[in-house]
Design a protein that fits this description.
This protein is 74% helix and 1% strand. It is mainly α.
Length: 459
């Protein structure tokens, strides 16, 4: 592995994976938007002419199953096929799915597209992160590296969500016919090019992902290849990863809820005019992506500097607690906005409160989300590496299926009550991670370290 490390502390193969992730997310977020507008648009404007309910169901299936499938893809790369060979196959399946979406004439055709994209994502998403993590022998670099990877993900999201609306309405439009189909085909082309890019970049990955991860994350090292039952230490680590994933469900339920809250509250009670210009509420998405892009290198440098300092880095549990805390603070911005209105129905709060809301939730996201990949890479047993990477992603699937119900419950209460209770829940979760930090860290200790500490305490 040492010959792969370059002077900027990260191997070039790391950037190969980051760029692959960026292009895949560009296609995915464009297609996610396209599905809804294409299915619900009238036939005369180039759509399928189905109902918004049908469009929403197809879109939600895309989101749900692209979060669920990586567990299966992870199992395959852990046991049977090297992760690097799963990735281009996944991209090829996604490309085929998007091209099929561009020629679909019914809901059935769109469902086949969703199935292909979901299977492709299962082979791609968790495995790219797993390969990236296995490129680093120095675990102190992982928090920094995955923060940078997350910026690449958000660059793809930002470009895709910003460009697709323009392409559909103008560039690809012909008369009254909107450019839905060419836009789907462009998504397919992006994934096809991405597959070629990854195949080209394989030579920069060294041995990472060549063999199933049961043979070890770093295959230059001598590791056991026989599949044996998990040891006590490994079981503790798996338990810690599953436990953190439960906190991830809490985080993502309320993170998804921020979008409903922003669009609902912003449309009713925020003055969106700035200097005579009506700011589109949809730009809230772009604000999130922009802040995440900007914060990635900053947090990467911070985590790396802290890991090299005499005091050492914060534990992952404390970092995740900070992420939950920032998300809680974001909801308080809506409370302050409501206080500034004085409860007057016709009064509008300043757009500054919505901006602060978006910035704080994005800071929370950058503190929380990228570190999960780092955590799994550091502590997952080799034989379950990609599967546990998929479990971290699965938390988003569970949250995505749950937040609508949470929003329905919150809608039954006054704004002030709902937006005070939500941050309280998040603050309690954050405090729990800080209070139990030492016990949680012990779950990750190797057996010799834990025994030595117990002996020292006895003395």
């Amino acid at each position: 592995m040492s010959e792969m490390v370059v002077k900027n502390k990260r191997p070039f193969g790391f950037y190969v994976c980051c760029v692959a992730f960026m292009f895949e997310r560009m296609a995915y977020y464009s297609a996610k938007y396209l599905i809804f507008v294409f299915v619900a648009a009238t036939v005369v404007t180039g759509g399928l002419g189905l109902t918004k309910v049908e469009a929403a169901l197809i879109q939600s299936n895309l989101v749900a199953f692209t979060y669920l499938a990586p567990i299966v893809g992870g199992f395959i790369s852990d046991r049977y096929i090297g992760a690097r060979y799963c990735v281009p196959v996944g991209l090829a399946l996604m490309a085929g799915g998007y091209f099929l979406g561009g020629s679909a004439t019914s809901a059935a055709g769109m469902t086949v597209m969703v199935a292909l994209v979901a299977i492709g994502t299962g082979l791609f998403k968790g495995n790219v992160s797993a390969i990236n993590g296995s490129l680093f022998e120095d675990e102190n670099q992982l928090d920094s590296a995955f923060s940078v990877q997350y910026s690449f993900v958000n660059i793809g999201s930002f470009i895709g969500t910003t460009a697709v609306g323009i392409l559909v309405a103008s560039t690809f439009a012909v008369g009254d016919i909107q450019g839905f189909r060419p836009a789907f085909q462009l998504c397919g082309l992006i994934c096809a090019i991405d597959a070629l890019w990854f195949l080209f970049g394989m030579k920069f990955l060294g041995e990472a992902g060549k063999k199933p991860f049961k043979a070890g994350k770093h295959t230059e090292k001598k590791v056991e290849t026989e599949v044996k039952p998990l040891t006590k230490v490994e079981k503790r680590k798996v338990f810690a990863i599953v436990l953190v994933s439960l906190f991830s469900v809490v985080f993502w339920v309320f993170w998804y809820l921020t979008y409903l809250a922003a669009y609902d509250y912003g449309a009713q009670f925020i003055n969106m005019a700035v200097g005579g210009f009506a700011v589109p509420l949809s730009w809230f998405d772009s604000l999130n992506a922009f802040v995440c892009i900007a914060l990635g290198p900053v947090l990467a440098a911070l985590w790396f500097k802290m890991s090299r300092s005499p005091k050492g880095d914060l534990s992952l549990f404390k970092k995740l607690g900070l992420g939950l805390g920032f998300l809680g603070m974001s909801f308080l911005m809506l409370v302050f906005a409501e206080l500034s209105r004085g409860g007057v129905a016709a009064s509008k709060a300043s757009i500054i409160w919505l901006l602060l809301f978006g910035i704080l939730l994005s800071v929370g996201e950058m503190l929380f989300s990228p570190l999960g990949n780092s955590f799994v890479t550091k502590h997952a047993p080799n034989k379950m590496y990609s599967v546990l990477m998929g479990v971290w992603i699965l938390a988003s699937f569970i949250a995505g299926k749950s937040y609508g119900y949470v929003y329905a419950i919150a809608s039954n209460y006054p704004i002030m009550v709902a937006y005070v209770v939500i941050p309280v829940i998040l603050f309690i979760a954050a405090v729990m991670l800080f209070v139990f930090d030492k016990k949680l860290v012990k779950l990750l200790e190797e057996e010799t370290t834990a025994a030595a500490e117990e002996a020292a305490e006895a003395i």
